Every structure is written in C-alpha cells, then in structure tokens.
Amino acid sequence: MADHDPAHLEAWRAEVRAWLATVAEPRTEEVFEWGVGDPRLQIFLAMSHDEEVAYLDRVREYRRKRFDAGYGAIALPEEYGGAGLPSVYAVAFADEEREFAVPPSSEIISVTTNLVGAAVSVFGTDEQRDRFARAFLRTDMLCCQLFSEPGAGSDLAGLTTKAVRDGDDWVISGQKIWSSNAQFSEYGFLLARTNPDVVKQAGITAFLVPMDASGVEVRPIRQMSGPSTFNEVFFDEVRVSDALRIGDVDAGWKVAQATLGFERSSSGSGHRRKGGTADDLVELARHLGVGGDPVVRQELADVYIRTRLHAAMVAKVARATASGDKPGPAGSLGKLLASDNLVRIGDCASHLLGMAMVADTGEWGEFAWTEHVLGAPGYRLAGGTDEIQRNIISERVLGLPAEQRVDKAPFSQLAKS
Ligand SMILES: Cc1cc2nc3c(=O)[nH]c(=O)nc-3n(C[C@H](O)[C@H](O)[C@H](O)COP(=O)(O)OP(=O)(O)OC[C@H]3O[C@@H](n4cnc5c(N)ncnc54)[C@H](O)[C@@H]3O)c2cc1C
Question: Which of 71, 88, 75, 74 is nearest to 16 (CA)?
C-alpha cells in the first residue's frame, strides 16, 4: 500500500511543509534571556475571559484551515471523515507543525477535536457525523468533556448524574466538575447513568448537551494559580433529545474508554510548552549567582537528568504510536515523569528563590515561578492522577497483583452501601 511506503511518507511530509509555509512563519529558535519578554513559566494560562476568547479564535482560525487542507483528522478512518492514514502520518504532521509558529493549541481545542470529534465520528449516526463531528473536528463548535463528578474522578464509572427517558427526550440531573473551558463551549460531551440496576460500567450512556439548554449552569472555579480554567456544571432537569445520544443506550462506557484512548493517539497541534523547564532553572541559578553552589548544581543535574528521561520516554511512545502500537503502560510512565518533573522544577525554583517566592518583590520572573508552583498539583491530577498511573505501572509493567475490586454488584446496591 502506497501510504506505508517510506517514500510516500516523505513526499507527504514535503506537501505538509509546503502547506504549513502558506499559513505560518517558520518557528524561530527561542533564546531565553533573563528579564526579557514573557517568562511563560505558568502551567495554566492566566487570561481574562476576552483574552481567552481572542486566543481561542486565533487557534480556531488555524484549525479550520488545517481541516480544510485535509489535515484535521489524519489517522481517523475515511468512513469517519478522517484522512485514513496510518498513525505515523499524524506523528509526522505534529513534527512538521512544531517547526512553524502556528497558534499554540489549548485544552478545549484538543478535547473538541482529538477526543469528542473523533468519538462522535466513530460512535455517532450518519446524521450526527454530518451535524457535529465535522463541526468539532473543524472547531466550528467547541465541546467540553463532562465526565468527572465530585464523587467520580479516578473511579469514573461511579458517576451519579442521571438521565431518565421521557418520550423522545432524556431528562438529565446531576453535577459535573473540573470541566475544562466549559464556559467557552457550545456543547458538552456528557456521561450519565441510565440504568442503576446493573454493574456500574454497564448502565452509562453518552450524550451531547447544548451548554445553553435550560437548566444548565456553568460556574467557573478559581484556581489557586489564578485563572479559572475549569468549572462546575450543574444540570437541573435538562431536557435533551434522544437524537443527541451518542452510541447505544447503556453503552456509554465503551464510548468513554474509546474517547480517553483517542487522547493517546491524537496528532497534536501547536506546541505550547507547559511551565518552567530545567533550562529556565539554570538561567534562574545563574541570575541569582548560585550556579557554582555544589548543592544547587546537584539539584539542577537531577532535574536535568529526569527531563532527559522524560524526553526519551516521549520519543519512545511516539515511535510506538508511529508504528501503529498502542502506547500502553509507557504512556503512564511518561505522564508520571512529566507531572513529577513539574513539581521538582517548582521545588527547585522555591529553594533558589527562597522567601521571594511568597513575598514577590515584583522582580521579573518571580511571580511566574509562583504561578508554576501553584499550577503543578493540578497537572498531577488531570488526565489520571499520579497514584492511578502508579497503579497501572505496578499492575501492567511490574506484574504485581491487581487492586481488589469490591464494586462488582449492581450500581444501585453499591450506592446504598
Ligand atoms: C487541570 C484539570 C483539568 C481537568 N479537566 C477535566 C475535564 O475537562 N473534564 C473532566 O471530566 N474532568 C476533568 N478533570 C478531572 C480529572 O479527570 C480528575 O481530577 C481526575 O480523574 C482525578 O479525580 P478526582 O479529582 O475526583 O480525584 P479522586 O479520584 O477522588 O482521587 C483523590 C485522591 O485519591 C487517590 N486515589 C483514587 N483512587 C485511587 C486508587 N485506586 N489507588 C490509589 N490512589 C487512589 C488519587 O490519586 C488522589 O490522590 C480535570 C482535572 C484537572 C486537575
């Protein structure tokens, strides 16, 4: 098959490069200079509502061009509206894209395109594909992920938001939480319990919910790092047409699992570095005149080694994805290393800055490090907590005994206990 041929891939890469050159400037090497420009050390972008809308508009303009050029859903099968190319093409696109100054993506863009757009393409009806999947993949509409609840995060299948059938509609009541960028979304991709009398995974159904429907209330949560990246979302007898159900009734767990799986095989877009790096720490140590201190040097070397280990793991996952493998437990190792490094980098910056970290003397870069330290714990939770990654590694990499499962009874009986 031509598209598995390395020569075909190289020719395709050249086409991608040529197309990218028509929509963006080549990315120039960023030279970090203490005291110059935006220190960009924060993990969660801090913007006003209007700034964030303008930011998203720039990304969406680019994503529409990308979709129209045929690069919107590279690895999605053609029958689902994608380009139907092997994953290696999606990885190659991300590589090429990193060389250009395209608008850096944000969480809601990747949730809308990589997760929800792909899920609706695969599990939706023809009508849903026409009406929604294309609009999500092209970012004409944004869709947040309404999975987590106050009592259902790591244990997602324990969710209690319920949907009750009423003629051609469903009536949804309950609460979601940590819904990233729900305040900018036209739709929400929601999991609800539709049958409590079966084991918890078996009674869940997926829906698209218009965020402006009567009974939906979005309340932004102010994070300790400053911005309101995520929200609580309340549903008070929200009426949703059965035409907005994605997949079969009570088959939502399969939809949810696949949706979370798309996250790993996504093609990526618009690189945005998250938080301060080991290089930023070295600059900080130099600026403070402590680069020769043996204890500081040891701490910096430790962070640097861990950063290189993470980079090696990312490269390994990318190679596996490119050759069509699922990332598997290596994805958990990468996530754990990334969140652990962010915390270690923040700890090291705190040691270097001392009291200035909390006193904030107003000097350039100081508060940016404070934002980093306050944002790092969130990253340890998002996308599966450190402990859950460790469980996966211990069970699936080290082959240790699995956690005891005590929740195999019908959900209604669990909820009562
Ligand atoms: C920045 C950010 C963005 C997010 N965006 C979204 C979003 O857009 N949509 C959405 O639906 N959700 C989102 N989430 C929610 C995220 O998926 C959950 O926070 C995550 O799944 C953890 O769930 P929880 O917060 O309920 O913690 P819990 O699951 O209650 O965990 C609490 C603590 O117990 C530990 N723990 C739980 N179970 C085990 C176990 N079996 N073994 C060992 N330790 C365990 C956890 O590691 C953690 O330390 C976001 C979270 C963050 C921080």
Answer: 71
Instruction: Give the separation between CA 317 and CA 394, rounded to whole angstroms.
Output: 18
Domain extent listing, the chain = 2-137, 143-265, 278-397
Beta strands in 181-297 (DSSP E): 187-193, 204-210, 216-220, 230-241, 245-246
Please tell me the residue having the least CA distance from ligand 1 atom 43. 387
Q: Which two tokens stand for residue 122?
A: 């695969």
pLDDT tier for residue 364 given thresholds of 50, 70 and 90: confident
Centre of ligand 1 from the C-alpha of residue 144, in Å: 16
d(CA 407, CA 158) in angstroms, rounded, equals 9
Asked about 263 being catalytic, the answer comes back as yes
CATH number, domain 2-137: 1.10.540.10
| Distance in angstroms (rounded) separating the CA atoms of residues 99 and 177 | 36
Helices (H), 266-293: 278-288
- Position 414 scores a pLDDT of 85
How many angstroms separate the CA atoms of 55 and 74, rounded?
Answer: 24
**pTM across the whole model:** 0.92
Average pLDDT of the chain, as a whole number: 90
Distances from the Cα of 324 to the Cαs of 91, 269, 328, in angstroms?
11, 19, 12
Residue labelled with tokens 């319990």 = 193
154 lines ligand 1 (CB under 6 A): yes
Q: What is the pLDDT at residue 124? A: 95
Q: State the amino acid at position 71 in one-letter form.
A: Y
CA of 14 to the centre of ligand 1 (A): 41
Residue predicted with more confidence, 28 or 194 = 194
CATH of 143-265, one of 2.170.150.70, 2.40.110.10, 2.60.40.10, 2.102.10.10: 2.40.110.10
Largest separation between any pair of C-alpha atoms in the chain: 73
Class of domain 278-397: mainly alpha
**Among 302, 233, 322, 314, CA closest to 274:** 314
With beta carbons less than 8 A apart as the criterion, state whether 217 and 202 touch. no
Q: Which of 263, 363, 371, 403 is catalytic?
A: 263
Query: E strand or H helix at 402, and its extent?
Result: none
Indicate if ligand 1 lies below 6 Å from the C-beta of 100. Answer: no
Report the pLDDT value the prediction gives residue 231, as an integer from 0 to 100: 97
